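Folds abound. Consider this:
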Amino acid sequence: MNRSTAREEDDSTTPAVQGTQALTRGIALLNLVADSPAPLRFAEIADRAGLARPTAHRILAALVEARMLRQDPLAQTYALGSRFLEMAHRVWDGFDLRATAAPELERLARLAGETARLAVLDGDGVLYVDQREAEQEAVRLVNRVGARALPHASACGKAMLAQLPAAERRALLDRLAPLAAPGPRTVTDLAALEREAALTAARGYALSLEEASAGVNGVAAAVLDRHARPLGAICLVGPAFRLGEARLHALGREVMEAARRISGNAAQSAMTLTVAPRPAAVSPGVEVAIRAEALLGEGPLWHQGRLHWVDILAPALHRSDPATGEDQVTPVEELVAALAPRRGGGLVAAARSGLRALGPDRLGAGGLGAGGLGADGLGAVLAAPIAEGAALRLNDGKCDRAGRFWVGSLALDSTPGAGALHRIDADGGAVVMQAGLHVANGIGFSPDDLVLYLADSAARRIDAFDLDLAGGTLSNRRPFASFAEGEGVPDGLTVDAEGFVWVALWDGWRVARFAPDGRPDRVIHLPVPRPTSVAFGGDAFDTLFVTSARVRLSAAELAAAPLSGSVFAIDPGGIRGLPEPEFQG
């Protein structure tokens, strides 16, 4: 964390940088500039690349001359040059989807032992344009190349629908109304299809569970062009008895990876597909609190003697007893990402449609009842900070001690730059407090109410803000902690009673603690690569609970980390947390 990159030996005495070493360095500098959310200054580029400044200067000058980079003489910054636009247009003008996808179809068919297909939207339907079958495929599927399917009833169709703007998607489905049901589980309700489109965009792949025909399941990911519109979709399909839902989720990562390779990652979002190497050993004091297989466990909250948490991508609410391992699960029909206590009883939930109420009847010992709920399994909308139809969702959230709910938003596909930090007041009013965030994530408050911490995952950084609790305002945004490649991505966080910040590091196999001045304090290694969030709980708030995820992990990665999706309990050695404040609305 905050590790400096070792600088190479100064080679300013060499007359020129030549050969493959110079080419490799030039590519590295181009990647640095391309991946930066803002133009970089010369010193930043040299330092991040670990290059001596004379070397960096010569390479940058050559790239500017070749129009690969452009330099702003006033700001003294570098950004990608016009030559890349010219090259991109040539690539896309001659792009042959079927030929480019052929190797990926063959690879997927061999990997899964199932049929791999390529499809495009053709008019208001789905057209299969290529297919590969596994060598030992014993069950032959009816649909072949040239066959058509309904977009709402096939994995490929649903993957492409999810990438269309909401108005365009709705117009297509309206033209097909009334929607036909070719399979026993086909979804034909428009509202339910909208919720599923949001779920598909969030996890990066679509499932079809006996929707195209009885006994056939599939998983698909969209192939996107440079404008993030669907060129087509690639999928794996096969008999339901072999392709159960758990296996479909495990194969979802492979299908996503294939779709990205087909388009050269033209519209790649911040969704990660690779994980860091496993640590040598799990730290002492780490135990499994709740054994589960959550796709994206998040939002842990200790409330009334139980641990409440969510599975964003199931989607579902969990109410767990770590003492016994009991885990009560209530499915809901829209994405739910965070929970907080509510004045007068019950909880509030940060959902796709806004801040939703969960009454006390949802939380009793008899289970998560359904009294007084809407058709989607959630209560009344208390606030809606995101405009209807926007390709965004709420993410992590916490209440301050004045009873306001602070929550981040992000693009459904985690595209950087689309997120914001919102403040929701007791009267339901919502204010954007910080725009332009990449992936707004963990939120926490210092015990003295003077600092708000916010993780911006795609930027690999936790920021600190000065907080005026009385006025609900922020100022003086500054970096608190940053993370290098291989250390993991900051996700959910909490602040203990001493004012130290604990953060879960996605793809890092660890939880880290930082002092109030940003100094690293300790690291706790876990048996899973994707811890997602942390919260103190137990009667004395002296146990740190950690949720985790299994989404987009390959079958091999899941075999190496079978506890992925479970909740863990850590003994922090006498350190305690604080109860979470209530929402006053």
The radius of gyration is 25 Å. DSSP finds ten helices and 33 strands in the chain. The first strand starts at residue 40 and ends at 41. Residues 262 and 284 are 44 Å apart (CA to CA).
